[in-house]
Amino acid sequence: MSVNFKVIQRKNPRDLAAAPKSYAIAINSGTVDIDRLAELVGDGSTVRQNDIYAVIIGLVNTIQGELKEGRSVSLGKLGIFSISVSSEGSDTPEEVNANNIKSAKVRYRPGKELKNMLKTLEYSKISS
């Protein structure tokens, strides 16, 4: 198994007169939804697919609740979820309040095993 990639050309946004360079980009070979994940996990265990599905939904709901409380959620080998915000600057610390926050994101940091998996990937070039 390998990750497919194709080649695209991009101009340098800092030097539009420069010749474009070629870069590899990963090609997504599809999406696995929650039903399929539950089926795959169920195939490798004695737990039924609908039970796994219920646990996954419960986990998502619990993660959302913990993030809303301002806590990071560590899922061991899977990684850590936390909240990150972007805000407008103010001249003094006293002027900063919740209205300065313009957007929030769920930040994900993969666990050590997922990071290590990236080091062992094999790649296959496909024609564009």
From TrEMBL:
Keywords: DNA-binding
Listed GO MF terms: DNA binding
Ranges where the HU domain occurs: 1-123
Entries under Pfam families matching the protein: HU-HIG
UniProt protein name: HU domain-containing protein
Organism annotation: Kordia antarctica
